[in-house]
Amino acid sequence: MRERLALLKPREVAVRHRGGAFRSAFKSRRCLDPADGFYEWKKLDDGSKQPYCICLADRSPFAFAGLWESSKDPDVTSCTIVSTEPSEVAGEIHNRMPVILPPEDHEAWLSSETAPANAQALLRPYEGAMNAYPVSKDVGTPKNDRPDLIGDFTSVADVSADLGGGASPRNNASDRPDSKP
Q1: Alpha-helical segments (H) within the chain
Q2: Among 3, 66, 117, 140, which residue carries the largest CB count within 10 Å?
């Protein structure tokens, strides 16, 4: 049996649409995708893009709202992470972000007993404290899978105020010895 994993990032409005491709999965195949951060790219004034790592302020792991699908012909298992409007911190970088479900919403999201309207209400921007900091552009290549790509967590502070005018020196990836240009 050949298994392949495909990832998409539909907006929450796409999964709510009655005729959408995710309608069936939204009703009965919801999942949690664990993470401790995610990347988004900010377009800079010179037209280039700078990747940022976005995480919870307390560095704790969290779960994205996900959907999964499986088919026999061809034999494919796929999953998607649902995206929504950005939080205040993520909005300084990009116009959307993955839906982060707080722990108290996990059971309702996973339950097939949860009515679709109630599940839809869970698809909202994360309201807790978050941090964002610039990281190496190497994160944009899947073959680069190294812990040093996310930098030194101990030097991260909330840079939401700095994003509009550039990262502060203590959060600038190029100032960290483990960063690559």
Answers
A1: 12-16, 23-28, 88-91, 103-110, 116-120
A2: 66
Q: Report d(CA 118, CA 169) in Å as an integer.
A: 43
What is the pLDDT of the chain when averaged over all its residues?
77
* pLDDT tens track for 30-73: 999 999 999 999 999 999 999 999 999 999 999 999 999 887 77
Domains belonging to the chain, first-starting first, are 5-175 (3.90.1680.10)
Q: What are 110-145's pLDDT values in tens digits?
A: 998 999 889 999 999 999 999 999 999 999 998 998
**Backbone phi and psi for residue 5, each to the nearest 5 degrees, phi listed first:** -110, 125
Residue 26's pLDDT band, with cuts at 50, 70 and 90, is confident
Task: Compute the distance between CA of residue 36 and CA of residue 64 in angstroms, rounded to an integer.
Answer: 10
Residue 15 contacts residue 22 (beta carbons within 8 Å): yes
Residue 61 CA to residue 27 CA, distance in Å, equals 26
The three-state secondary structure class of 50 is strand
Tokens (6 digits) for 134: 């610039």
User: In the numeric block, which tokens belong to residue 1?
Assistant: 């049996």
Q: Phi, psi (5° rounding) for residue 8? A: -130, 175
Residue 83, judged by CB atoms within 10 A of its CB (0-12, 13-18, 19+), counts as buried
Backbone CA torsion sign across 142, 143, 144, 147: positive
